[in-house]
Specification:
By secondary structure, the protein is of the alpha+beta class. Helix content is 23%, strand content 29%. A hairpin with a 4-residue loop joins strand 7 and strand 8.
């Protein structure tokens, strides 16, 4: 009995060979391109080539200071305004604010999350200008 050797068609073998060559060529090109670093730019001076040196100014990040924003406040316009635990009518009342009281606004939506000296809660935005 003769053993059958596994052989592919010549077309298929040629395609596999060309595919392998293209793969190898791609790997070589990729290796060449990644080995070139744009950060080692060199400055030509006369006959020699000198790499640029880092200056102290380039290594220290610049910090810009912005002025501290003023807190947003509003004045209660209703005679008595309920400050609640959440921004809904069903939430429990924490405190009753009187007309003319100034509160600091923390968040703004249909309801305002506000803070007084010792209490934080929600009030309806319509009654605070």
């Amino acid at each position: 009995m003769t053993r059958r050797r596994f052989m592919q068609k010549p077309e298929t073998e040629r395609r596999i060979m060309y595919g392998a060559l293209w793969f190898i060529a791609g790997c070589v090109i990729l290796a060449i391109l990644t080995s070139c670093s744009p950060y080692t730019a060199q400055i030509a001076t006369g006959n020699s080539t000198v790499a640029p040196s880092m200056t102290p100014e380039a290594t220290v990040p610049q910090v810009t200071l912005s002025p501290t924003p003023r807190p947003i406040t509003c004045t209660v316009t209703a005679y008595a305004l309920n400050m609640r635990t959440a921004g809904t009518m069903r939430a429990a009342v924490v405190r009753i604010l009187e007309r003319g009281e100034v509160v600091t606004v923390l968040e703004r939506d249909g309801w305002l999350k506000v803070a007084t000296r010792n209490t934080t809660g929600f009030i309806y935005a319509r009654y605070c200008k």
